[in-house]
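Service request form, structural biology core

Requester: graduate student, group of Dr. S.
Request type: structure prediction, single chain
Budget code: on file
Notes: please return the result as C-alpha cells.

Sequence provided:
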Amino acid sequence: MDSEVAVVGAGVVGCATALALARRGVSVALAEAGAEPALGASGASSGILHTGFDSVPGELETELILRSAPLRDRLLDALRVPVLRCGARLRPRDGRPDVVGTLAANAQRNGVAIAFRRDGALKVPGEAVTDPAAYTLALAAAARRHGVAVREGFAVDAVERGQAGSVLRSAGGDALTARVVVNCAGLHADTVARLAGDDSFEIYPRKGEFLVFEHPPGERLERILLPAPTGPTKGVLVFPTVDGKVIAGPTAVDQRDKDDRSVRPAAHDEIHPQAVAMWPALEGAEPIASYAGLRPVGRGVNYLIGASRRAPGLVNVAAIGSTGLTASLGIAEHVCELVTELDVTLRSERPLEPGAAPKLRVPWWQRAAERSWRA
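Core staff response, request fulfilled:
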C-alpha cells in the first residue's frame, strides 16, 4: 500500500489536510491533476483571510473559520508567507445603523473583535490579506518536508475498492493505493465521489471576477473595504494586496462550464461603479489586469465534510466556497478527527518544520490573469 491516506486535490484545503495528517505521523499521498498546486480556485481568490465576524453562528463553516484563526499566524510566520494585517471597514451606503448593529451582534456571538468608528462604520481589525497561491504552495512544500508524496499530473480516472483499501488510477495509467481517500478535489469533487460510488451531491462553478488597479497618484488604500451584505455572497470588496496593488471584486456568476475562467466584458461595468462608491479614488481608474476564479459550490449543500455513506473508505471535503482559504486549517483539523473513525491512527503532532514560501514567477493575480486570458 502506497499510503494510509490519499488526499485528492492540491488546493489550499487539500494541502492543509495533507500537512496536518503528516504532522500526526500518517503516511500521505497528495494527488493533484494539474502541473502544480494552486492552479484552481485557491490560486484565483481574493486572498482575504476573514475573521468570521459575519458568518452564521452555529454552522460548520463558521466553526471551522473560527477554529482556523488561532492556528494561522504561527503557520504564516513559520512558512514565511506574505501577509498584510490591515483590518477591514464596513460602512453601509444608505447609513442604516441596523445593518451595522446586526453584524456587530453577530461578531459578538462568534467571539470576533470589532469596533465602531465615529462615522458609524464597523471596524474589523483581525481581517487580513495574503497571497493565496503562495499560501497554498507553502503548505504543499511543508507537506513534502513532512514526508507527503505529492503526485502532480495525477488526474483521478478510476477508484477501485478492495478489502485492504482503494486504488486510485490516473488518466495517464499511474496508480496509487491507500486505506482512506480524502476527496478535496474542489470543482471535481463530485466526479471523484462518483468514481468511488457516491453520487449524493453535485458541484457547480460560481465565477468570481476581479479587477486589478495600481494605486491612484497620491492615494493609498490602507484597509479592506467591505460592503454591507445584501445577499448570499459577500458582494464586491475593495482591498490592498501584499504586492502594493488594489483589487476590486468579485462578481458571482453561476455557470455550468468548469473550465471557463474567462472574464466577461460586462464584469467591468458590474464591479467598477460599486468599487468607486466604496473608494472614490478609483473614479476614472483603468484596471491593469483582470482575472476570474471558479468557486466550487454545492447544490443545496455547503461545507459537505464527512465520511461517505455510500463509498467505504471515502471522506468527502466538498462544496467549500469562497471561505476555503480562511477555513483551510480548521478543515484540516476536522478531517484529522474524521479519519480516526476509519481506523487511521494519529500520533502526537510533530512541530512544524519552517521553510520559505516558494517564489512565484509572477504575482499571484497575474498568474491568475494569464490563466483567465488563456481560457
